[in-house]
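To: structure subgroup
Subject: Chain for Friday's discussion

All,

I'm putting the inputs and outputs inline so they're searchable in the archive.
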Amino acid sequence: MSMTRLFLAAAMLAIAGAASAEVRITPQDSGVKVRLRGISAVSADVAWASGREGTVLRTVDGGTHWQVIKVPDAGGLDFRDVEGFDAMTAVVLSIGPGEASRVYRTEDGGGTWQLTLQNRDPRAFFDCMAFEGERGWMLGDPVESRFQVYATKNGGREWELLADGPKAEEGEAAFAASGTCLARTGDAVVIGSGGSASRLHVLRDGSAQWQSFDSSMGRRKAEAGVFSVAPVGSDAFVVGGDYKAEQAPGNAAGWNAGNKRGSVFRRIDPRGFRSGAACMGDKTFFCIAVGPAGVDAWNVASWNRVSDIGYDAIDLVGNIGWASGDAGRIARIEIADPPDRVSD
């Protein structure tokens, strides 16, 4: 039996456990009006968010209050990704050509910030980050036909540019739409791309060679492709679409890491373009996809409409999380009666 069929069979066994889950979205007051494309759920009480005008937000009481933090000398930056480690420690990433692409780290709750990485190459453009404990990876758009991938071993204090990122086709790039174009899942780092090619690029632990798979999601348009990669056990759940056609059916796919070749297969499309996704569970899993045109939940069998209010990014820790978006929009996410976690 193919790995795709094995993955589908396992998913069908999980329908009963996932179908009863209910998603509750509670809007909160962020205290800002800028677009927030970065969100990081640390615990049921602690979360970080980030966005335009050098803005970083933090809550330590479940979102009842959000502290507005300004990174010094960063008022013109757009922080598209934030990764929180705890209530005091976080790393934020800004996008833009040349020196506008930066990474900052705080260890005192945003009181002070250290600039730990700044791009000096006018051809480069940072996109997103992912962490597994102190280990982390940062993705940048292709330079000289290869994606730039930086790695850190100490929580973003220091970064090293890997010698060979995955090879890119001309016109292929990543989307800095929700801070989730890169993910750590199982024993691999997974990159989602779009544009002239819509692919998943995979680097397994112990290997120096990237593998590339067609995501079956691309339209070979500069504005379309994979926007978000969400870990599901050792596999991945992927969403995207065309950001210039928000109401058009989006795309969703699964990537199966079950063998050395992996496999990619098309799944049922959500109602529109979706820029971010987050999942809980493992073999019995439940995913939420967000986009400017609404929110949908994937219960293994099908998509269910959750809301027509748009968000750009989402992150979960267990059955609790947050979503963020335009005009300072932020909301607490709670999954009631979640599917039981099943380990490998």
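Points worth raising on Friday:
DSSP finds two helices and 30 strands in the chain.
Residues 1-19 have pLDDT under 50 and may be disordered.

D.
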